[in-house]
Every structure is written in C-alpha cells, then in structure tokens.
C-alpha cells in the first residue's frame, strides 16, 4: 500500500502529524508513505523513520512571486509528482492550497480529506472523493490521527508515539542544562526580557547552565540582553540548523519556550518543556504529553485568545509585551519547570 500525505507547513503542524505516521506503520508495517512538505521543512519530515520520501514543494515562493518562471517550476514539480500513483492521497491540512496540491497527485481511489464541518477551510470538501467527520474541538494531533485512521479503516490507540527520538540516540542527556527558546514569529507571543532575565538567574543560582536559542537579529538582541544581565548564560554564535537545535533540545534536561515550532519540537522529543501562551490558545495546538505543560494566565483576560499579531491595547508596531504575557511571572515558570524535572 502506497500513501501520499499532504501537509506542507507549518513547523508545529508537521510535528503534530508524526504520531499519525507511527499509527499507520503500526497498523500496516509494509505501507510506503510519501509526504508533500514545504522545502524548508523537508529536513524535519525525514526524521521520521517510516517516511519513504519527503517530496519538497516551494508553494510559498511560487504564490508570492506569481510569475511565469514560478508557473513553469510548478508544472515541472507536478509532472514529477505524477510519475508515481498512490493507493491513498490524504490532505491532512484541510486548506484550499493543500487540497489543490493533493488533486495534483495520481490517486487510484481519489483524494481523502476532512468534511466541510471539519476542515479549516470548508470549501476544500469539494476537492475530495471521500470526506470524513473529525471533531474540530480536538487537539491537532488527535484530529490528524483520527482523519488518517478513518481513511485507512482503524481506530488509533490512546498512546502517542512521535517516532523521532531514535534519530538522536547519539546525544547524551545533560541533567544540569536548560534551553530557553525566546523567539517567535508574532510580537504578541513574546515574553518580557526582564522575565527571561529573572528566570535565567533562578536557573543559574540553582546550578544549571542556560543556553538561549535565537533565530533572527531581533531574537539575538534579546538573547544578548539576557546574557548582559546573566553573564553565565550562553547563546550560539550563529544561527543553527533545525537538526542542530533538535540535538540541543534532546541534550537539555528541560526547556522553556513560547508558542513556536521549536517548543513543539522539544515536546515531540519528550524533553520536559514549559510553553508560555497568551494571544494564542494551547487547547487545540498546544504541546501535548505528560512531559509538557502549557502555561497561561490563571484568570484569562476577556480578549484571550485573540490570535492576533498586533495587540489592540498597544500602539501600532509596538514591541511591548501584551498584558496576556506580562501576567506570567518567572517564579511561576521556574516552579513548574522544577516540577517537571523532578518527574523524570
């Protein structure tokens, strides 16, 4: 049985899909699974040992450029995709763009996807041969597992298996090292630098080393501000590859991060992780598993979660920390992290 899975982005969504891949191989050990994914995330998909082939696509760039060269590249990509027929093609993303890409494949039994009440974009159900009802109130991990199970005719077992830890067995755990993930793509998800400084000092005073992961010039500046207040903390000299960051997350005894892909990666790697939430909700897309904890205000504000890149209570283009995040204090995070570490 040959299966094509379409889920092109984002980083966190890809990690959320790994348990469904593990489910398939448990039910059908001989299944051959290919996965269409944005080129920048191909490296991640290839971590799962049950993936036969990661098929990279540059849809984001093609859509942004919208020129003849991009159109020619897309047609070449589609022609290559159609050299292989699939018994099942599953659109696990539920967006118009993913439905259109799924329709490019040769599916001997048609394309499967969410029904109009289950998909993130209801219009997608017109593109599928078969649609499946999956509760939208479930966590994204369970939604994907349920969809794939319904397509292939099995009920997923309760236990989760992300299936990627075996790629990092060469990394030795450091019980006295913590990793802090300070960056995220939305300003509204950021935590105050002063709180990061306070948390870092607590960790250092307790005898831990702290490494701060950054990925942009703005994040590098935040890391430098933390280190200026806590000189024993460190950061990488250069921006790291995804695989190198994964190795650091495996090495760490614990991780504190924001609502960002690398926090989800830490959770998928089963490292004790505290993730901080304000503008977004962890209910459907938060970290999942006994080794994780999604932290937000004990008494949420009326505007939470807004799912906005700009806080309406702050001036336009402000980089100040919104109230939904300022209410989370370093001492609270430290106590939760200590609790998680004590359970390991």
Automatic annotation (TrEMBL):
The keyword Oxidoreductase does not apply. The keyword Cell inner membrane applies. It is found in: Cell inner membrane. Pathway: Bacterial outer membrane biogenesis; LPS core biosynthesis. It catalyses: an alpha-Kdo-(2->4)-alpha-Kdo-(2->6)-lipid A + ADP-L-glycero-beta-D-manno-heptose = an L-alpha-D-Hep-(1->5)-[alpha-Kdo-(2->4)]-alpha-Kdo-(2->6)-lipid A + ADP + H(+). It is an enzyme of class 2 (transferase). It is a peripheral membrane protein. Its EC number is 2.4.99.23. It holds the Pfam family Glyco_transf_9. Belongs to the glycosyltransferase 9 family. This is Lipopolysaccharide heptosyltransferase 1. The gene is waaC.
